[in-house]
Each structure stands twice: as structure tokens, then as C-alpha cells.
């Protein structure tokens, strides 16, 4: 399976990157074709320019600097996104990747009768997020980012794709045992691809 592994954390020695390495090794060992987009390492620009915004629904093609990201998105059969949750949302660089790469004409087509999905090859998306607070806080807010991905992003671009959410809470007090338990749950889900 063609897997796109996206990460969003500025520190290469972070927990996010430990999880990315685990996922990458496991997916490759299982025989999947893995392409990685480390948004910080690649200096992805999350800022949509005024010109890009003005043409957002009329783009014949994506801006040149996005072409490789678009090709990887359009060919992915599975996407694994690993990121920390900061103030109940993803890092701005990840939100910018969604805004700029999952665009009209790429992820969906805007027509006079509604939106037409364009990512039919996408079978599964796995969100792996880390939090420094406990689960009750995210639940009280009804999982805001995960809800947006599930109810808007995937429903409009790849409605047949399954979404799986793996969340690790209270990371500031993370023990090795809890980390091993979490990576075991990741492994089970990656094995199901």
C-alpha cells in the first residue's frame, strides 16, 4: 500500500518524531511504500498568499511549490499524520498543509451542485496525536480537530476512507510502559492496513 506519513513538530528529538520513526520502520518492514512529509524539516510554508486565496476555487493547478505535496496526497492509499495537539488544535504548519494541499481541484471539485470528492484512492487515514493534558479536556470540547477531519475533510474529499484516531494524553508525565502500550496500539492499526 502507498502510505503518506506526515509529521508536524519542530524538534527532531520530540515524542512526535519517535512515533514517526516507529511508524516508518513498521510500515516499511510490512512491505508498504512509505513517503514522508516532515513539514518542519521541509520548511513547508503554511501561509496562503493573497493571490493564492483569490484563485483558491479557480485554480487550474496548484502553485509550483505545492506540486510534490499534491502528487503525494493524490497517490496515497493511506495517510498517517503524527502531531502534537497545541491549544486544542494542530501546529499551524499542519493546518496550513491542509488548507493549501487539500484544496479545490485537488482533494475535491467545487461544482454548482456541490462538492465532488477527488481522493477516491484514499482508503484510510490515521491521526496520531499527543497531548500534555488529560483526556477529559479534549472530550469536553468534543475532539475539535478530529471532528473537523472526520466531518469535513474526509467526507468532502474521500468519503469511503476510514478514519482512526489514536491519542496519547498526559505526555509530560509519560512513562516507558505507557509509551510501549501506545506504540502497541499503533502497531495493531498499522498491521490492519
Structure description:
Helix 1 (15-29) links the parallel strand 1 and strand 2 (33-38). Helix 1 runs parallel beside helix 7. This protein has a single domain (2-191), classed as Flavodoxin domain (Rossmann fold). It is built from 7 helices and 7 strands, in the order E-H-E-H-H-E-H-E-E-E-H-H-E-H. The strands form 2 sheets. The chain has a 5-stranded parallel beta sheet, with helices on both faces. The longest helix is centred in the C-terminal third of the chain and has 16 residues, at 176-191. The protein is globular. The chain has 193 residues and is of the alpha/beta class. It is 39% helix and 21% strand.
Short overview:
The protein contains seven helices and seven strands, in the order βαβααβαβββααβα. The radius of gyration is 17 Å and the shape is globular. With 193 residues, the protein is of the alpha/beta class.
Identify the quaternary structure here. Answer: single chain
Q: What characteristic shape results from the CA principal axes?
A: globular
Tally of DSSP β-strands:
7
Whole-angstrom Rg: 17 Å
Alpha carbon gap, first and last residue: 8 Å
* CATH C-level category: Alpha Beta
> What is the count of structural domains?
1
Q: Count helical runs.
A: 7
Contiguous runs where pLDDT drops below 50 for at least 5 residues: none
Write down the CATH topology: Rossmann fold
| Beta fraction | 15-25%
CATH architecture: 3-Layer(aba) Sandwich
